[in-house]
Amino acid sequence: MSTSTWTTHALTTERLTLxxxxxxxxxxxxxxxxxxxxxxxxxxxxxxxxxxxxxRSLLQQWKAESARLPAPxxxxxxxxxxxxxxxxxxxxxxxxxxxEDLEIGWQLRPDAWGNGYATETTHALAAWAFSQDVQExxxxxxxxxxxxxxxxxxxxxxxVGETTKYFGIELQVYRLRAADLDRAAPAALQxxxxxxx
Length: 197
Ligand SMILES: CC(C)(COP(=O)(O)OP(=O)(O)OC[C@H]1O[C@@H](n2cnc3c(N)ncnc32)[C@H](O)[C@@H]1OP(=O)(O)O)[C@@H](O)C(=O)NCCC(=O)NCCS
Known about the structure:
Elements: E1 11-12, E2 16-20, H1 26-33, H2 36-39, H3 52-68, E3 74-80, E4 86-94, E5 102-108, H4 117-130, E6 136-141, H5 146-154, E7 158-163, E8 171-177
Antiparallel strand pairs: 1-2, 2-3, 3-4, 4-5, 6-8, 7-8
Helix pairs in contact: 1-3
The chain binds coenzyme A (COA).
Coenzyme A (COA) is lined by residues 38, 41-42, 105-108, 113-119, 139, 141, 145, 147-148, 151, 154, 186-187.
């Protein structure tokens, strides 16, 4: 990763815009991070955000942290293009303790699950990371997080193993290498031999 800091910029996909969080997104963000069905799976640990004031303060904290992150790391709001609604968040963040591995993660409001939005986000963020001198990105999945495990597998990420080294809890590690980026493409962007035709 670069040592210079990066101001998170927007990435656009067919159905989504990934853009920096605004404090004014607090209400939409609370529909994501106020949901225990979302936060229970996150690592590092994150409690459900209890109310709007807490969400606003967390967004302020994320904005300040983002300004100090080395490129291509960041935190993005996921906005749906059809209605401009913020339906979730995504991250590319350095994994502790070494801060050398880069974690990709997604948090969608539950009523947005099942539409392939995490898949679309993965491809956009991976392409962005690989354009910035990063060779591989990692997903760390809590055992039992069936939806996240399906997402990473469907996006061409490879099983690495289980570890407690990142956050002191057992996590399943998956990796996507730059050479496998095509496997992270949404079906519409994949050549026929990868889309199961
Ligand atoms: C993990 C999480 C992001 C996955 O969301 P998701 O919507 O299931 O993810 P995907 O983008 O992979 O979508 C796949 C589903 O969309 C469907 N789908 C619909 N249109 C699709 C399209 N154009 N492309 C791909 N999949 C599509 C797939 O059939 C699949 O449906 P299924 O779950 O019924 O089998 C979401 O469950 C979440 O936010 N969980 C809480 C937080 C969390 O666990 N984060 C990950 C921590 S490691």
